Structures are given as C-alpha cells and as structure tokens.
Amino acid sequence: MKQKIEKFLKNFSSCFQLVQMYGCQHPEFNKALFETYQSLQAVLSGQRELNLALVGGELTSGDDIFFDLSKRLTILINKFISKGFEKITFSGSVSREELKNFFLFLLDSDSENNNIEDCLKDRGIQNIQLNKIREFSSQGDKQKKISQKDMVKALYSQSVSSLSSSLGDLIQDQSVDMTKFGSVVNNLMEGVGYHYQEILKLSKIKGKDAITFAHLLNVSFLAMHFSKYLGFNNSESREIGLASLFHDIGKLYISSKILKGGKLTDEEFQQIKSHSLLGADILLKFVDKLGELAPVVALEHHLKFDSGGYPKLRFRRQLHLVSMLVSLCDVYDALSQRRSYKNSFPPEQIYKIMKEGRGTQFHPGLFDSFFKFMGAWPNGTVVLLSDGKIGRVVGQNFDNIFAPKVEIVSEPSEEVVDLNKNGTTVKIEKSLNPYKEGKDYCKF
Length: 444
Ligand SMILES: [Fe+2]
Ligand SMILES: [Fe+2]
What we know:
By secondary structure, the protein is of the alpha+beta class. It contains 18 helices and ten strands.
C-alpha cells in the first residue's frame, strides 16, 4: 500500500506543478490529472479512504512517513502550510472533477483567509475533507515561520540538483525536460516572500560547477522578481526567468579550470568570452521548447548599452530589453557572489561599482529602476546605523534608495524605523558582513 500511496503523491505533486505552470485547460495537465486520479483509485480500491497528515513538516499516512519524497513534495507541503491545514482525507467516491477542482482550490490564493469548508463546498468538492489541527497561536506562528524557512532552503537545494541534471541532459543528450525546468522556475517564484540577500546565503553550496548553477538560479530569481516590479505579468516573468536560467549555459562547455579564476592567458580569456555565442548556438536548437528569448539573452547578456562588450558587433544596435534586464541581475549577482571569496563586495560598494556603468554599460532608466527595486542595501541586509544600533533592512523607499525601512535587531524592541521619514537624522553607516560580524542578526 505504501508504494501505491507514494505513486499517488508523486503524481499529485507533478499535477500541481503543471496546473501552476499551464493552468487547468492544458492537455499536459489533463493527462497528469488522469494519471493522478488512476493512482488515487488504486489506493482507494484497497481501503475506504486515504488519510494524509502533516507531521513535523513531513507528509504521513497512518504509520508511513514519506521521507524519500520530502524534496519532491516541498512545494505542496508549503502550500498546505500556507493554507493552514494539516489533514486531508480522500473518500472512496471522490470523482475526477472533484480532484481537478481541488487543484484549482490549491491555486486560489484568495481562499487562504476564508473558511475552508465553504471554499470546498463552493467548488463542489464533497469527498475531499480538510482539517486544521493547529490553531495559530503565537507559538504556532513561530513554528510556521521556521518550517517555511526550511522549505525555502529545501526548494533551493532541490532546484540546484534539478537544474544541474537537466542542463547536463540538455548538453549531452540534446533533450529538454520542460517539467524539471518549469519546476525550477516555480520554486524560484515560490521564494517570493524571501529576499535576494537570504537566497544569496543559500548559494554557498559546494561541488563541481555548483557556483555556476547557483549563479544561474540567483540571476533567474532576480530577473523574475525585477520584471514583476517593472510590471510584467506572471507568465511573462516566468518566461524571463526561464530564459535567464540558460544565460551562461555556454560556460558549462568551458573547462572548470579556467572558470575558477586566477590569472588568465589571453587565449583563456578569449575562450571564456566565447560562452555567449556558444550558449546561443546550443539554445537555438531548442527554440521550439525553450522559446526565442533564451538564445537572445545568452547572446546579448555581455553586450553593453553603448554596444561595447562581447561578442563584437559589426554595427550598433538596440539590445533586447530582457537582455539588458538580465545583464543588470548578472553583474549584481557576480559581484555579490564574490563574498564567498577573499574580495568581499558589500552592497554599498556594488552600487558604486555598477553606477560607473550607468549609461555606458547599462541602460540608464533600467539601472535606476533596478536600484529602486533593490535599494542600495537590499531587503535582508544587516546594517550599522549612525546612532550605533544594528538593524536589518525590511523595506525600500523608492524615492530614496539610501533611506530604507530598518528593523532594529540589536535591541529587544525590534522597532521598525523609516530612515526616509521627515525629521529622521539616523543614516546607514555601512552594511555588516553576513558571514562575519552580521552573522548573528541574519534571518537565515
Ligand atoms: Fe555570462
Ligand atoms: Fe552570468
């Protein structure tokens, strides 16, 4: 029976990812729904009902705990937690229509604050019951926060391994697993409540090429959220996120010895520079699946606003907006990632360095929007204030990127101070390194 339930859970999880990506009209979703319903029927043919419960952040059924599926079910478990329920019962007479409506219920964020029973009834779901076990007391809220943090961590490491295997397949077997790429993009979208500074801390992963994969994920995360800030809709942002995932795919062809840095010969430097053209060349073969944006971004992400950069252009031309957007995210992440090495660049210095390229390397308007979105100190940065207190940036003021909202973390009051408020004389002196003196004040 355990295997049957596992099969159902795997199908259920894939089905949920597909409905998130394509909606309920898409044939891929309907195919997955059919398989999910079949596997649920297989479980229900042996028992009257299927009870699933969330215990300590894991899905369980009776005495069975599905540890092996934990990573795969993260998004689903996260969804259950955010909707506040911990027990699901599928009765024997559940129909396929009810199962489909249940997926739509999971997608519907408006229903999060409403009465669950009413929401299910409104959708004609009678044979799937949900129970809230936990009342969200202050203790409960604390538990919820901790488990969501763990979820984000799990989502990130899941994305790194999924991305590395899918890109490996793409290069070696010339095959594209869109479900895997789609789930990576979804995972990054799920991290929406978190900030780049926190995601950055997750990217200290080890292993061959891991830095490249973490960089691809971070750039994709930034590009998606920046594009949403600019006014792109969800599906456009997903498309931008997907294209960004491949911007450095050409680097995976280049020897890791060269990419590790150190002093490069002219020839090695030329080899690195070839990654944009090489990447575009690979991606052109998969335009039918990955879309046209991916090769365009791979080709143009090192070209500058004034037509400098590489590959060399024969004539000056306007770059694609998404390439210019990705180029900002790319440079920002490359400078931030150096924190893991000897040369650490705090946010204030990254801003200074990048500002030198405003109007030459970067489109000036897009540059300004990017730093309005990020702030000179992005949300999550631990900072030292001019009155000696230590704070964590929790919100930006778009009319002054140097005066964000800061939560005081060096004192028990945890008061939030708006540095842009009239009459405030307190300023940010500098950021504190999250791996050293700022470590104790980081959320992650
Ligand atoms: Fe690149
Ligand atoms: Fe890059």
